[in-house]
Design goal:
The chain has a single domain (32-353), classed as Neuraminidase (6 Propeller). It is mostly beta strands. The longest helix is centred in the first third of the chain and has 26 residues, at 2-27. It is built from three helices and 25 strands. 11% of the residues lie in helices and 44% in strands. The structure holds 2-acetamido-2-deoxy-beta-D-glucopyranose (2 copies). The site of one 2-acetamido-2-deoxy-beta-D-glucopyranose (NAG) has 5 residues, from loops.
């Protein structure tokens, strides 16, 4: 009798695990293949061979790239090289990416940059916020950009218990930002379990020197975050739920949900066209290929443009799609006056004239 009960329980446990595994395959869109959508005028950017996880472009056309991200379990083409921040002037005919110098005192050896965001203060000071994973922990580094010297002056390292697994960031002040946590847990095994069990414990946190608070939660895997040009709305990509969430920003910086846009792909970074307000979403059509790297069947890339997100019927168009023969694992797409930059998690970066 006891043995029958044990067998029964074992059967139920196996069925549950099987169901979770099947659900995970769906969340990863493990069986999705894509049709190519080509852009005519594109070239790979020299000097970026091992990922350009995030890109942020200043109004004057200077683009920042965070490069060399390493995450446990994720492939890397340069596992021993620390990460860095590159800059490229999009106004130049033959724009090239140059590495920015970082001020002394900052630990470059453990620099592992992820999401980035810029903020321009009233006095024109440019702050660069960088999500960093030194020894796979999460911090936010605040730098001041010194354009004449092509350098970054390190101002502050922010650590907080509400920022256990930070992914992306959008700055809203010189020491103020919203950030996504892609997991609730800090420990790699618990993170894995959290994702596997589909707990939906990922969150968005508001940080300021005076107040730090969770302002949205219940995400499967909160990833890219950005803000509308009028600064009224915050957009959050939930990668494993295949959604973009739209929140209205309140005067106290709390967020109230105004809509959720379902998509057929794993959305990574979101960037905003400063003029039209269109959202450019860089996506992973097939998450399985991204996490289980096979050079013969590499991860693909997909860039979506979403117009009129606040309207009844937002329009979603595929601007670029590639099976990995050119670009693998697109994680960010950023536009500047008819130019499109597409970065990837651990591969190269593409520069296109639209
Ligand atoms: C990707 O597409 C190209 C043609 O566009 C094809 O030659 C190549 O075999 C495809 N690669 C994979 C991995 O499917
Ligand atoms: C995604 O893109 C945004 C905006 O360009 C950036 O701030 C963020 O760091 C990027 N990276 C990730 C991992 O979401």
């Amino acid at each position: 009798m006891g043995r029958l009960v044990t067998l029964g329980l074992l059967g139920i446990a196996l069925a549950l695990l099987g169901e979770r595994l099947l659900a995970l395959r769906n969340r990863l869109k493990a069986s999705r293949e894509i049709e190519s959508v080509d852009l005519p005028n594109c070239h790979l950017i020299k000097g970026i061979e091992a990922g350009a996880e995030d890109i942020d472009i200043l109004p004057n056309g200077l683009a920042f790239f965070s490069v060399g991200l390493k995450i446990p379990g994720l492939h890397s083409f340069a596992p021993n090289k620390p990460g860095g921040i590159l800059m490229m002037d999009l106004n130049e005919e033959k724009a090239r990416a140059l590495e920015l110098r970082i001020s002394r005192g900052f630990d470059l050896a453990s620099f592992n940059p992820h999401g980035i965001s810029t903020f321009i203060d009233d006095d024109d000071t440019v702050y660069l916020f960088v999500v960093n994973h030194p020894e796979f922990k999460s911090t936010v580094e605040v730098f001041k950009f010194e354009e004449e010297e092509n350098s970054l002056l390190h101002l502050k390292t922010i650590r907080h218990e509400l920022l256990p697994s930070t992914n992306d960031i959008i700055a809203v002040g010189p020491m103020h930002f919203y950030a996504t946590n892609d997991h609730y847990f800090f420990d790699p095994f618990l993170k894995y379990l959290e994702t596997y069990l589909n707990l939906h414990w990922a969150s968005v946190v508001y940080y300021s020197p005076n107040e730090v608070k969770v302002v949205a939660e219940g995400f499967d895997f909160a990833n890219g975050i950005n803000i509308s040009p009028d600064k009224k709305y915050i957009y959050v990509a939930d990668t494993l739920a295949h959604e973009i969430h739209v929140f209205e920003k309140q005067p106290d910086m709390n967020l109230t949900q105004s809509k959720v846009l379902p998509l057929d792909t794993l959305v990574d970074n979101l960037s905003i066209d400063p003029f039209s307000g269109d959202i450019w979403a860089s996506c992973h059509p097939n998450g399985q290929k991204l996490f289980v790297y096979d050079p013969n069947n590499p991860p693909s890339s997909e860039v979506l443009r979403i117009q009129n997100i606040l309207s009844e019927k937002p329009s979603v168009s595929t601007v670029y799609a590639n099976n990995g023969s050119v670009l693998q694992g697109s994680s960010v797409a950023s536009v500047y006056y008819g130019k499109l930059l597409i970065g990837t998690l651990y591969h190269r970066a593409l520069y296109c004239e639209l």
